[in-house]
Hints:
Shape of chain A: globular
Strand content of chain A: 5-15%
CATH architecture of chain A: Orthogonal Bundle
Structural class of chain A: mainly alpha
Helix content of chain A: 25-40%
Strand order of the largest sheet of chain A: 1-5-6
Oligomer: homodimer
Amino acid sequence: MARYLEVYHEPKTIVPENHAAMSTQTSPSQITKDLQRQRDTSRDGFKNKVQLFALTHFGPVWAVVQKIGPVRRWLNNAMLNLEIYKTKTRPYALSMLQDYTSWESLTDRTWTGRHLPAKDISNGKPLPDAAKVAELFRRHGQEETLSPKSTLLFSDFAQWFTDGFLRTVYDFNRENRQLKGTGKNNSNHDIDLTPLYGVKKSITDAIRSRVGGKFKSQMINGEEYAPFYFQNGQVPEEFKELSIAGLDLHPVTDEAKATLFAFGGDRPNVQTGFAVFNTLFIREHNRVASELAKRNPTWDDERLFQTTRNIMIVLLMKIVIEEYINHIAPYHFKFRVDAPIEGSTRWYRQNWMTLEFNLLYRWHGLVPNTVNMPDGTKVPAAETVFNNSHLLKYGLGPMMEAASKQPAGDIGLFNTPAFLVWVEQVSIQMGRDMKLASYNDYREAFGFPRVTSFNQITGDPERQKRLAELYGNVDRVEFYVGLFAEDVRTNSTVSTLIGRMVGIDAFSQALTNPLLAPNIFNADTFTEYGLEVIDNTKSVSDILHRNIPDKSKHYTISMTRLDWKPV
Amino acid sequence: MARYLEVYHEPKTIVPENHAAMSTQTSPSQITKDLQRQRDTSRDGFKNKVQLFALTHFGPVWAVVQKIGPVRRWLNNAMLNLEIYKTKTRPYALSMLQDYTSWESLTDRTWTGRHLPAKDISNGKPLPDAAKVAELFRRHGQEETLSPKSTLLFSDFAQWFTDGFLRTVYDFNRENRQLKGTGKNNSNHDIDLTPLYGVKKSITDAIRSRVGGKFKSQMINGEEYAPFYFQNGQVPEEFKELSIAGLDLHPVTDEAKATLFAFGGDRPNVQTGFAVFNTLFIREHNRVASELAKRNPTWDDERLFQTTRNIMIVLLMKIVIEEYINHIAPYHFKFRVDAPIEGSTRWYRQNWMTLEFNLLYRWHGLVPNTVNMPDGTKVPAAETVFNNSHLLKYGLGPMMEAASKQPAGDIGLFNTPAFLVWVEQVSIQMGRDMKLASYNDYREAFGFPRVTSFNQITGDPERQKRLAELYGNVDRVEFYVGLFAEDVRTNSTVSTLIGRMVGIDAFSQALTNPLLAPNIFNADTFTEYGLEVIDNTKSVSDILHRNIPDKSKHYTISMTRLDWKPV
């Protein structure tokens, strides 16, 4: 049992060893809406229903009130509190260290947090075999269910930025090639652009050019990229601090290996879509550093680098709240980063990523069988893994546009690609090893009534039947399974419980970033130019169009499907 | 220039190498009050004056309102906010890492924090020689000025518990035997009983017995003590993780060395008074663990130890706020720990000890020339250093009573014992190296008008004259010097600016302890018995009388002089 000390392995990014999938795309559908109609909504909770109704109706009213600055700001605050206070706020009483509270469990953040105490949910009767439960997740043959709302760009972004702080540490058994969660993590617990800057200083240092506050980079076909990680098949001395998660477990051709980048993060090389985002942010970092250098000719490399980094982290925060979260939420109200965040609130507490937050983010259903290229060719997903050749061939703008035009898969049971089903089993087993409470316990803790029958979880008769066969009783349904058994919420892209838990964690952990705090969110920290950049950035598209060789070009960049219409 | 990597050296605890002081005690005096009367109070600030007047008058009214539970609780909250909001709240924009804000400066707490940005206060004209400025602090010959209010017990407690979190790291130059602040610290930044439990887990592990949740201990004359650190002059293998700050720099007799204890903290062995408090808390820990074991027969050593630790940390918090801070404050209102602390406040932020907080706590004036023993003998302070023989000879209760009956020295200029004057110089130099803003800048930042003449700082003509000679202009007075040049506030035990800054830091850092948080301050964390212990502990005296061999004995234990009367 070798502990992964150097390469922290996140199953979310584990990739196929034998995958010859072919794509059979189904057309966008009203499946979600139809399922919602069949579901018994009697246990959704009256308050929840009222809130949802108010936020998803009266579009013109919402449009008007959001145009009145002070009203919008007040609403933004009120909405944040409304979402976050659905459950108990940090500090958490417990971590994965022990089943009781200790000074270590309260202070040592190398142990992953937990929302609810450990609990034996078996009730004396063994839970169904984890391998069988994992089969609930398997995509039906080649037929992938598509998300009616989200694009592959959304999927790539979600994985890329959460890889920065959802960093579970596993034991890896080389004999049976199985991963087992340890309850530990190597996260900095902040949404701090770790994929770009690396998890620690020695890594950041390795990728800095030490000139003008910039990252090391190279030009290929007139576009800027990180340097290559391998030189003649070897990692050069300057990049010894870097690592690529899972590379040693995966067969990679020499050709593909030669396209991997010297990134600060250990995961953006895992799949082309993540490398695309890292490349975008490297370019923006170097662009901003140049602009700062012009305006501050006396600043040294260090100050230019650090000030650029301050700006870049806030840019990520803006994208996360204003584009990504608003894409997920089915509301008319659009959340904003109203910095500085005053935060006279109970929720403004030190961040601590929890296991529940980590598990609920395993959106394997998003992963399509094939990835569409700018020229229309369809490449099996497996070929885009540990291989940046497509990015180098087509360039950044075209790759992002192609991802914006391809629908992602739908998040939920029966839609995990075959090559990721084993990860579902690892996740289910981890929930059991860490004694997570049941799906119903989490519903209750997050402001929903407990369900009393399977048709209150999902309107899909097949899901109901399979759940009933496995668990017999809704009270026995496990947290991880329940999350993904729920139907995707109408006009959202995740289920109701996932949506609520993502919101609570995302808001309360993103908005407590020190860069957004009252004494810090100012021109001393960012410069006036930096504040302008922050102000002018509301979407991934904004950043892309500042960082392409031909500034007159326009790409269609979107997390939301162009053909999506709210129902 | 060897960096102190293992033994972090805090000048506060540095001790004499050649010290043959004799005691000439002056009687308690009205010096403070008299000085206050002569001082020009026109720059004290109108709001400050009103607040002080209200809090130090109308005694009967305060007495009544504090008897009405809900009113008292409301007042307690209001008073805390009133004190804390006198300045900007955390997170701090800057640390000692850089003169500008960076992600590292915002997150790496091995760098000491700072309230105000770096500033050149010399204004083109060199500041007076640091050695000359340090002479301002020197006690006049053997004549020590006594505190009219505080006892040596107060002095010992202050040093003992702050040594747990004010942990500056210095470079030590072995050639000229000089310390130089590095801007770094090895603090955990919480008021967490580090003197008892040690700064990290490997140390805690070394002093645990692994039986019944207790510390290792030994019985001497029917009283419980920690084991000795040295066995036959050598540190045994089991204690290799422990260290004693400064011991290698100090000549210690074999006899004295044999009395040093195996403590978790690296500083409680430095002076008998600190060893007294550590011994008290070891006994209370072992007592509480025994009681928990009786009530929870199925618990293992680990759970007993950790739960006892939870209780002990809160006991410290109670003493700090309810005995120690109330002793310092001149108010009729008495602060309380109203746990759980809800904290819908801007001040509830992650702790980060600052250099200013560290410097203002250098209360060398408290240190008397001689220490009174229970039998009336007077031992030169130097002989109580790295030497626990007196504690072993007289026992815990008598030692604490003797300290309660001896007045401490007064905090301020002209009262630092000769052997500590070099530490004043180190402190002054550190303020300069770290480019601290001026005394007047700090007045302004903490809600006081800037002073315009020396007689607004102090009513003492000699202080005024010496300050004027050195600085010429009040705007040039350094932070560290100004703090201690101020007269002690009437009926307090520190100056006005120190009092305010101590309050802000103490409240906002003690009350944010996770053990006091809403989801944690409960019987799950402490047990019902633990909550009772917490409830029944309001003073050091309460703890002592649970931990002496003869339970029928009563000792007089007090931080306040028995002959003190408010004026």
